[in-house]
Amino acid sequence: MLQTPEKFLRWSSGLIASMALFAIMWLTLIDVTGRKFFNHSVPGGLELTEILMVIVIFGALPLVSWRSEHVVFDSLDAVIPVWLKGIQARLVHLVCAGTFGLLAWLMTTRAQRFAEYGDTTVHLQLAISPVAWLMAALLLLTALVHAVFVFSPPIPVTHGETAP
Q1: Can you give the residue ranges of the Tripartite ATP-independent periplasmic transporters DctQ component domain (predicted)?
Q2: pLDDT digits (tens, 9 = 90+) for 58-100
Q3: Which residues are paired to 120 by β-bridges?
Q4: Longest C-alpha distance within the chain, in Å?
Q5: d(C-alpha 130, C-alpha 16), whole Å
Q6: How far is the C-alpha of 107 from the C-alpha of 132, rounded, in Å?
Q7: 3-state helix, strand, coil in the chain (%, to 5)
């Protein structure tokens, strides 16, 4: 039932995050090589790395939430009755959906402000608003993932495997 969202998340947020990480790898290689052998680093390399790190982090959020691979505090699981665990899980997903939804809304207001003021990076003069809009979209997608789990239980995924 939930295989299509898994594929969508892999091909959207997972691909975005992996491409950004791949770009960071090459940017770092070129920057280090340039500094070592040519005494010249990539102009704006730090700005590009910062933007790409934002894309990696926010791009991975929906997929990590879908697979329930985030950090879990489970010290009380031994004392919580089984019947309460389902309610607890749905309540946690509801809080997460609301929190990520609020963060997405706040990021849209920030992105709008960046666009209105024409904010850019210092060295390369790259517009900041598209990155903020992407962050807002990925936060909203993460909120939707958690909202799905409020009404249907998460698919159990063992480490290193994908969902059926």
Answers
A1: 24-151
A2: 999 999 999 888 888 788 888 888 888 888 889 999 999 999 9
A3: 127
A4: 64
A5: 14
A6: 6
A7: 70, 0, 25
Dist CA 132 CA 126 (whole Å):
12
Q: How far apart are CA 43 and CA 31, in angstroms?
A: 9
Coil, strand or helix at 7? helix
Give the span between the Cα atoms of 60 and 50, in whole angstroms.
16
User: Length of the chain, please?
Assistant: 164
**AA identity, residue 97:** A
Torsion of CA 87, 78, 154, 144, to 10 degrees: 60
Residue 112 CB coordination number (10 Å): 14
Span 102-138, pLDDT tens digits: 999 999 999 999 999 999 999 999 999 999 999 999 9
- If DSSP codes are grouped into helix, strand and coil, which group holds residue 127? strand
**Quick one: CA dihedral 124, 130, 134, 140, positive or negative?**
positive
Strand, helix or coil at 156? coil
- Extract the tokens encoding 55: 């894309």
